[in-house]
Amino acid sequence: MNLWTVPNILTFIRIIATIPMFMITYDKNLYIIAFFVYILVSLTDLLDGYIARKYNLVSDFGKFMDQIADKILINALFIAFLDIHLIPGWFVAIIIVRDIFISGLRMFLANKNIVVAADMWGKLKTFSQTILIGSLYLSVQFSFLNSINTFLIWITAFFSIFSGYNYLVKNIAGFKGEENGQK
């Protein structure tokens, strides 16, 4: 298996981009720049999946690392936003606990040769997180977004909890020793 495919390189770029994104989140004077950099980094998530499917470069490694890259970037930024008091602790706890739980679920099932790919609810969770982060960056310049951010926090918390529950229910057969719901 060749790890250095274009989709995997884009995934690694997203992981590496976490460090400067995290650092600039602490300087509100850079939030407009941070917003555009975040959009570019987020687009690598769409692009890597598109390229992987179009050129038949989809791999279990890519599916797993793509989701890990999302979690690294998003959780790091949420921790920074929590530290500077733009989002509440309960919200960050929900996001991180859910992500660790689902990552553990994926690892457990991977040992049984079951790959848990992202589904619609997981993608809605990631999309809502992405919109929230973009809105948090823009809210420094556009204060009317603060009330929208409150709504986005609640909807993102809902998608996080529901998608975690959905992954658990859909893969409960794997815990019983059945593969993909079949004996």
TrEMBL record:
Domain of life: Bacteria
InterPro entries: CDP-alcohol_PTase-I, CDP-OH_P_trans, CDP-OH_PTrfase_TM_dom, CDP_ALCOHOL_P_TRANSF_CS, Phosphatidylglycerol_P_synth
Primary location recorded for the protein, binned into one broad class: membrane
Topology of the protein relative to the lipid bilayer: Multi-pass membrane protein
PROSITE patterns: CDP_ALCOHOL_P_TRANSF
Keywords of this entry: Lipid biosynthesis, Lipid metabolism, Membrane, Phospholipid biosynthesis, Phospholipid metabolism, Transferase, Transmembrane, Transmembrane helix
Signal sequence range: none
GO biological process assignments: glycerophospholipid biosynthetic process
Pfam families given in the database record: CDP-OH_P_transf (PF01066)
GO molecular function terms listed in the Swiss-Prot or TrEMBL record: CDP-diacylglycerol-glycerol-3-phosphate 3-phosphatidyltransferase activity
Location(s) in or outside the cell: Membrane
Transmembrane regions listed in the UniProt entry: 6-24, 31-52, 72-97, 151-169
Cellular component terms (Gene Ontology): membrane
EC assignment: 2.7.8.5
Similarity remark: Belongs to the CDP-alcohol phosphatidyltransferase class-I family.
Record-given protein name: CDP-diacylglycerol--glycerol-3-phosphate 3-phosphatidyltransferase
Protein species of origin: Marinitoga piezophila (strain DSM 14283 / JCM 11233 / KA3)
Classification lineage: Bacteria, Thermotogati, Thermotogota, Thermotogae, Petrotogales
